[in-house]
């Protein structure tokens, strides 16, 4: 069968690569694709705009494409699924109405309210004076969100009322005419993915990502600097509650509203220190970079899962199978990202060969026999191993071998799941006096406290001087078992 994938990021490279693992998939057309998809055997990049719905439909029909998979949210919010379906194509990805769960924060809030899904208390405004009044009443910290898609730039977590007023004005100046002002939540964030055919759903693996550009989750927001999967925070018990409190009511509400939602349901959750679940946001597509961490763990052929969704046969689908490994993806970005950056830098080291290491291209372009940078996030390097420590070490070993002018990656991806080096207390040189032993006790107490302290992601309000709070994360070490059997890299 032939499949057409829409998009050009690391997520799409991962999707195309995974689809092509099955010999049943004879060809994948990627619109427009990137340097990575260009080099995959049986993949053809089609240089067409993702909003050229007519062009995509014509090409897909001429080629006899059996399934279209839409990666990014923008074409989904623009109604690509509705149009392609009207041209007799099968599409994995929700219609324009369903995609509102991501494309309109106020729509999603109302949806959650109707469905009884736990989320932060909020109000929607079309008037800055009223928004300010509400902020004054509620106090800070508080969160201000643009209603529509904003490529990760529409949310301000304001530490003070003045910052919140500033956010309202700044968004208004950028042309945002609908704002959601929301209660500030604390806890750990986790991403939960499910695929659905509109009748039932299946959960995929969970993941946690790193959105900030800087070490210790500091600095500006980005499209994502790394991710790991599965998230140990989500125990089977917590997953059951997430299904009951979030996913079941979401699907039921879609059905109640007569929306046939086929595609990915991505719930961004905040888990409070007490274990309460609240939805921060929904997205209507695979996450990036999370998909680059999750898909290498998938055993079941991906095209079968996606086809079961578009054919509404998910209820009869066998259990989805996963590798019993842990996965870490580190993103390499162009220097300057998420601000201004240069393109066209030659990339070297992409031919590295290591078992369970996968290099996904995001912003790259083929030039002659090699590749040059062509975007802010350039590559995602994913490594799988029996545990996170080894996966982290493997991913960093691989990324250290890749070079281009200005390359930047965070040194601390997955620090929350990395085991801390054991604290060795040197034996006393002389028999401890009473005083000494008291001292030793107190040292031990300190180290126990530190050891058992799991760093919480406090979605820290943007602050210009967080350096002193940066968790110190040691560099990844060499893997304990550095053998490198035959290449399995993409
Ligand atoms: N109510 C809240 N309390 C605390 N932090 C929040 C809240 N809402 C959002 N955030 C923070 O802001 C980030 C972005 O928010 P949200 O996910 O709603 O925006 P988005 O632009 O849709 O993001 P994405 O690009 O991941 O889809 C969250 O990941 C979280 O860190
Ligand atoms: Mg979102």
TrEMBL record:
Gene3D superfamilies tied to this protein: 3.40.50.20, ATP-grasp fold, A domain (3.30.1490.20), ATP-grasp fold, B domain (3.30.470.20), Phosphoribosylglycinamide synthetase, C-terminal domain (3.90.600.10)
* Pathway membership, UniProt: Purine metabolism; IMP biosynthesis via de novo pathway; N(1)-(5-phospho-D-ribosyl)glycinamide from 5-phospho-alpha-D-ribose 1-diphosphate: step 2/2
Which InterPro entries has this protein been placed in?
Answer: ATP-grasp, ATP_grasp_subdomain_1, PreATP-grasp_dom_sf, PRibGlycinamid_synth_ATP-grasp, PRibGlycinamide_synth, PRibGlycinamide_synth_C-dom, PRibGlycinamide_synth_C_sf, PRibGlycinamide_synth_CS
What cofactors does this protein use? Mn(2+); Mg(2+)
Which Pfam families does the record cross-reference, listed alphabetically? GARS_A, GARS_C, GARS_N
Provide the alphabetized UniProt keywords: ATP-binding, Ligase, Nucleotide-binding, Purine biosynthesis
- Compositional bias (Acidic residues): 442-453
User: What is the superkingdom listed in this entry's lineage?
Assistant: Bacteria
Known EC number: 6.3.4.13
Compositional bias (Pro residues): 477-490
Q: Does the keyword tRNA processing apply?
A: no
Enumerate the PROSITE patterns for this protein: ATP_GRASP, GARS
Query: What are this entry's molecular-function GO terms?
Result: phosphoribosylamine-glycine ligase activity
Q: Does the UniProt entry include the keyword Ligase? A: yes
Locations of Low complexity compositional bias?
466-476
**Which residues does the UniProt record annotate as the domain ATP-grasp?**
109-311
Residue spans crossing the bilayer: none
| Reactions this protein catalyses | 5-phospho-beta-D-ribosylamine + glycine + ATP = N(1)-(5-phospho-beta-D-ribosyl)glycinamide + ADP + phosphate + H(+)
Q: Where is this region: Disordered?
A: 419-490
Family, according to the entry, reads as follows: Belongs to the GARS family.
- Protein name according to UniProt: Phosphoribosylamine--glycine ligase
Source organism: Spirulina subsalsa FACHB-351
């Amino acid at each position: 069968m032939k499949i057409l994938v829409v998009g050009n990021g690391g997520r799409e490279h991962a999707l195309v690569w995974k689809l092509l693992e099955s010999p049943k998939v004879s060809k994948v057309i990627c619109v427009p694709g990137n340097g990575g998809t260009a080099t995959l055997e049986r993949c053809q990049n089609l240089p067409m705009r993702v909003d050229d719905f007519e062009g995509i439909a014509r090409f897909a029909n001429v080629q006899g494409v059996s399934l279209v998979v839409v990666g990014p949210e923008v074409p989904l919010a623009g109604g690509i699924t509705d149009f392609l379906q009207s041209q007799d194509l099968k599409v994995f990805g929700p219609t324009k109405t369903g995609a509102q769960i991501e494309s309109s924060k106020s729509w999603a809030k109302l949806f959650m309210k109707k469905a009884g899904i736990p989320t932060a208390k909020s109000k929607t405004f079309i008037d800055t004076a009223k928004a300010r009044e509400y902020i004054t009443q509620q106090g800070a910290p508080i969160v201000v969100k643009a209603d529509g898609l904003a490529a990760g730039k529409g949310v301000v977590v304001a530490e003070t009322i003045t910052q919140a007023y500033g956010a309202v004005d700044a968004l208004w100046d950028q042309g945002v005419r609908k704002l959601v002002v929301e209660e500030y939540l604390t806890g750990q964030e986790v991403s939960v993915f499910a695929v659905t055919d509109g009748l039932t759903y299946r959960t995929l693996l969970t993941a946690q990502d790193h959105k900030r550009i800087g070490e210790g989750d500091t600095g500006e927001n980005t499209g994502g600097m790394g991710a790991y999967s599965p998230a140990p925070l989500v125990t089977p018990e917590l997953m059951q509650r997430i299904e009951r409190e979030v996913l079941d009511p979401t699907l039921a509400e879609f059905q109640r509203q007569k929306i046939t939602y086929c595609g990915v349901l991505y719930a961004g959750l905040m888990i409070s220190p007490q274990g309460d679940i609240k939805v921060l946001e929904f997205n209507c597509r695979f996450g990036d970079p999370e998909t680059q961490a999750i898909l290498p763990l998938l055993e079941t052929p991906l095209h079968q899962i996606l086809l079961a969704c578009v054919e509404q046969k998910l209820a009869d689908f066998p259990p989805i199978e996963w590798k019993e490994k842990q996965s870490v993806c580190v993103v390499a970005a162009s220097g300057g990202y998420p601000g201004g950056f240069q393109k066209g830098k030659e990339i070297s080291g992409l031919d590295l060969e290591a078992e369970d290491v996968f290099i996904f291209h995001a912003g790259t372009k083929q030039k002659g026999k090699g590749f040059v940078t062509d975007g802010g996030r350039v590559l995602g390097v994913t490594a799988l191993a029996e545990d996170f420590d080894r996966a982290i070490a493997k991913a960093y070993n691989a990324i250290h071998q890749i070079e281009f002018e200005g390359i930047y990656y965070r040194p601390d991806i997955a620090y929350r799941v990395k085991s801390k080096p054991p604290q060795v207390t040197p034996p006393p040189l002389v028999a401890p006096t009473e005083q000494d032993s008291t001292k030793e006790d107190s040292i031990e107490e300190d180290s126990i406290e530190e050891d058992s302290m799991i760093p919480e992601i406090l979605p820290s309000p943007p602050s210009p001087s967080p350096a002193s709070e940066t968790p110190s994360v040691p560099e990844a070490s060499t893997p304990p078992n550095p053998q490198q059997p035959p290449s399995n890299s993409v």
